[in-house]
Amino acid sequence: MAGEGHPLLRGGRRERKYSHGFSPAQIQALAAICETLIPSVSLDSINPKIPHDDPALHGFYSASGSQPPAPDEVAELLTKRAQRQVVVMVSIVLKMLSYRLGTLVLCWGSCLASTWPFILNFSEMPVESRERVLMNWSRQKFVVPLRVVFVMIKIYCLFVFYTRADENSSNPAWEAIGYQVDTREKPNESHNKQERPLQRGLVETVHETDSSLIQSLTKKGLEVTQIPQHNAFRIKCDVVIIGSGCGGGVAAAVLAHSGQKVVVLEKGNYFVPQDYSSLEGPSLDQLYESSALLSTVDGKIVVLAGSTVGGGSAVNWSACIRTPSHVLKEWSADRKIRLFGTPDYEYAMDAVCKKIGVTQKCKQEGFQNQILRKGSENLGLKVQAVARNSSEDHFCGSCCYGCRTGDKKGTDSTWLVDAVENGAVILTGCKAKKLILEDTQYGEKPKKCSGVIASSVLNKDITKELHIEAKVTIAACSAISTPPLLISSGLKNPNIGRNLHLHPCAFAWGYFPENPTGIQGKVYEGGIITSLHKVVSETGAPVPAIIETPSLGPGLFSALCPWTSGTNMKERMRKYSRTAHLFTLVRDKDSGEVREEGKIVYNISEFDKENMKIGLRQALRILIAAGAEEVGTHRSDGQRMKCKGTKEEDIEEFLNGVVISGGPTSKEELWNLYCCAHPMGSCRMGASERDGAVDESGESWEAKGLFVCDGSLMPTAIGVNPMITIESTAYCIATKIAESLSSKKDL
Ligand SMILES: Cc1cc2nc3c(=O)[nH]c(=O)nc-3n(C[C@H](O)[C@H](O)[C@H](O)COP(=O)(O)OP(=O)(O)OC[C@H]3O[C@@H](n4cnc5c(N)ncnc54)[C@H](O)[C@@H]3O)c2cc1C
Fold it and tell me: Residue 350's pLDDT is what?
């Protein structure tokens, strides 16, 4: 509904002035690229079956990516979110394309004309010639920067085009592609006027000033003093927790319940169901790390992570899978981390599932899950139901933009509510910058942690730093953010930042026109993950990979899909609402690293690629068996196959050609984009200092009083969705800390 939701999550333009810094000539060149990626297409030139009298389709096909303000919006997002070196590359290429000679260098013969001035600059070239140039850049394996520029502009341009929402929360393309934003009536609208669940413990730095902040913190029962020599406030508490997601939320509840004064720092904002708009663009921007446009440094894997109160649990796809018994055995027996073999851990899983309201059944499955189920069953493959932390009739595909009905139970509506009821204080918009570490002369560990230095990230009116001093400091910023914090604070254990597992995912798609298969619905409707297939090899041996279904709004869908021509992309998007995606998630044996903020280095090893390939081929088989008219992968050349009437041997030949290609910066002609949403292991627990960054109780081997309590603790990849494992591990660690603190043991 127009104007509904929090102002930050609504449509319409927020920025009055652009700050991208590109010149008008560069923007003109960028507009020419955007127009090539999303050209105005005449309906007569394509599929004759498209109804010519449909105004929505007419508008969609005639729209172009160059229409203002799209190019400026693309430039703005790119300069804000892409890696620095990529922005520099894009800037240089755009500058060159705005000159004739520069265009000649980058586009070769395609910019030559038969009349004066014989050489055209990029925006003067006909769209067809520009299209050939972009295809060339996409296949370019020698001058990789050109391919990188192509990929980045393609991603950002399509993302902006399909997510932009006007003041009425609408986008002209959505009707034509069959997409509708979730505008179901929110239950309990009367809650609007009631206190928000975390209000009692909340200090939102975005609404504070230096002087009001001190009052707000004092009112919450905290001792606050000035440190004039540091232009800072000193805040005292028992436990400070950095991050409010799966790990941090649970730790806050357990420790506050045990009587400790807890402070939670969260760099994101706090939103409640009444705030959520279900608009993909603003929701990804506000609720996700780097607006959901974070990737590994080589651009190959898009890394999704929540960044709001509740962290990943506020936006995730609600699959609740207990830690598999073979994983627990491996961790307790092979890795010698006894915790995972104890009844305490089993008890923690029960407590977690109870608290977040896990239900086992799903009353009605959505379009994609019906396809996964039907295809698997037609092939005689096992498919299992996935439990969720929502009610059994929660038919919602928009939980990834925050659950607007409040039915899904993230930490923001469960553990953190318990925490504030027991006196915890949650500081939002507040980013931890550095741990306070002192060298110890005689202690059993070389350092002692006595808190953390943080500052407001969303409000320039707060000029003071916050020095939060505590008996216990818990880093729960996620597996991609905890290691950079520890390393930049001076910790040296070589396991910090290493052993980063991602559960990389490869996508397969299948197009299911209305009617023939009898499968009802649209791709964005219904529970996001309600079914799962565990991949097995041809001989029936288990493969460390599973197949599930994703949530892809039009923005992410278009950004990830291969672009092979402007017309083809429009055709793909026209079929959006009936194009199902399945992904195969691999339990990665090998790993990458994250040592600096935003710099995730990760190569998919040959071993993991092999398992991914088996999973991807299986996903395609399932789509075919479910009755897809056409199937394909995300390989850059648009690898696809029409299924109707195709002989078994042709299908096998197609599947044999499906492999796991490198990313855009690889030297391979054909490349692929992958995704992940389960970073883990980058501060793993280890039986010794050599094996892990922290011990079995989550405490740093180097610094007393410093604990880790998030996905980075995992000794290896888990192989299934990790929320229950992370929350259960956090529960055990926090319980032990609480016991030590209350027995006044020297921590
Ligand atoms: C789109 C998506 C779908 C998913 N679906 C599922 C699913 O269906 N089932 C499942 O089991 N798992 C799922 N996951 C994974 C799961 O949500 C994560 O594994 C889990 O949230 C990780 O927990 P965590 O405690 O490690 O960190 P997070 O939950 O990511 O929380 C970390 C928090 O710390 C904050 N933070 C980071 N740095 C700082 C700092 N310096 N100062 C202050 N705050 C900071 C972040 O803003 C964030 O809010 C999904 C994840 C995503 C993103």
Answer: 98
Global confidence as pTM = 0.96
C-alpha 100/C-alpha 115 separation (Å) is 14
Give me the catalytic one of 20, 394, 467, 678: 678
pLDDT in tens, 701-724: 999 999 999 999 999 999 999 999
What confidence score (pLDDT) does residue 188 get?
58
Q: For residue range 304-315, what is the model confidence (pLDDT) as tens digits?
A: 999 999 999 999
pLDDT at 743: 87
Q: Residue 188: helix, strand or coil by DSSP?
A: coil
Say if ligand 1 is within 6 A of residue 554 CB.
no
User: Residue 497: CB within 6 Å of ligand 1?
Assistant: no
Is residue 52 predicted with pLDDT exceeding 90? no
Place 460 in a pLDDT band, splitting at 50, 70 and 90: confident
Rounded CA separation 221/581 (Å): 50
Alpha carbons 292 and 491: distance in angstroms, whole number: 29
For residue 687, CA distances in Å to 158, 697, 718 come to 47, 10, 18
Give the whole-angstrom CA distance, residue 120 versus residue 99.
8
Give the number of other CB atoms < 10 A from CB of residue 69. 14
290 near 80, Cβ under 8 Å? no
Q: Is the CB of 529 under 6 A from ligand 1?
A: yes
- C-alpha 476/C-alpha 468 separation (Å) is 16
Give the pLDDT of residue 745: 55
In sequence order, the 6+-apart residues with CB closer than 8 A to the CB of 492 are 702
> Is any ligand 1 atom within 6 A of the Cβ of residue 349?
no
Residues in CB range of 499: below 8 A, 6 or more apart: 591, 593, 681, 682, 684
Count of alpha carbons within 13 Å of 413, Cβ hemisphere only?
Answer: 20
Q: For the residues 35-63, what does the mean pLDDT come to?
A: 87
Q: Is 678 a catalytic residue?
A: yes
Type of residue at 168: N
267 CA → ligand 1 middle, Å:
12
- 10 has a pLDDT exceeding 80: yes
**What is the spatial distance between Cα 607 and Cα 601, in angstroms, rounded to a whole number?**
18
Q: Does residue 312 have its Cβ closer than 6 Å to ligand 1?
A: yes
Q: Which atom of ligand 1 is nearest to the CA of 311?
A: 49
CA of 723: how far to CAs of 247, 366, 387, in Å? 9, 22, 12
Residue 193 scores a pLDDT above 90: no
Is the pLDDT at 436 greater than 80? The verdict is: yes
Helix, strand, or coil here: 706? strand
Contacts of 244 (CB under 8 A, 6+ apart): 252, 264, 266, 309, 310, 311, 411, 412, 416, 426, 476
Contact 233, 224 (CB under 8 A): yes
In terms of Cα–Cα distance, which of 431, 432, 413, 429 is closest to 421? 413
Q: Helix (H, G, I), strand (E, B), or coil: what is residue 595?
A: strand
Q: For residue 723, give every residue at least 6 positions away whose Cβ sits within 8 Å of its Cβ, in sequence order, or none.
A: 246, 312, 313, 316, 319, 320, 389
Residue having the nearest C-alpha atom to atom 32 of ligand 1: 477
CA-based nearest residue to 244, from 292, 203, 186 = 203
Residue 3: other Cβ atoms inside 10 A:
12
In the predicted structure, residue 189 carries a pLDDT above the cut 70: no
- Give me the pLDDT at residue 452, please: 98
Residue 719's closest CA among 586, 629, 598, 584? 586
Comparing CA positions, the residue from 84, 572, 617, 609 lying closest to residue 301 is 609
Report the length, in residues, of the chain: 747
pLDDT at residue 265 is higher than 90: yes
Read off the pLDDT band of 186 (50, 70, 90).
Answer: low
pLDDT of residue 746: 52
The rounded distance, in Å, linking the Cα atoms of 107 and 105 is 6
pLDDT of 2 strictly over 50 = no
